[in-house]
Amino acid sequence: MAGSPTFPEKISRLAAYEKAALALSVLACAFLIIDPLVLGVVREFDTGTRNFFRGLTYLGKSKWILVLSGALILLFTWLGAKQARPRNNAAYRLAQQLLLFLFATVALSGLGVSLLKNVLGRARPKFFEKLGPVEFQPFTFDYEFASFPSGHATTAGALAGVLAIVWPRARVPLFIAGAWIASTRFLIGAHYFSDVVAGCAIGVASAYFLRDRLALRDWLFRKNEDGSIRLRGGVMLRSATRSLTSRFEALGTDLIEWVKPDKEPRQ
Question: Do 92 and 83 touch, CB atoms closer than 8 A?
Answer without folding.
Answer: yes
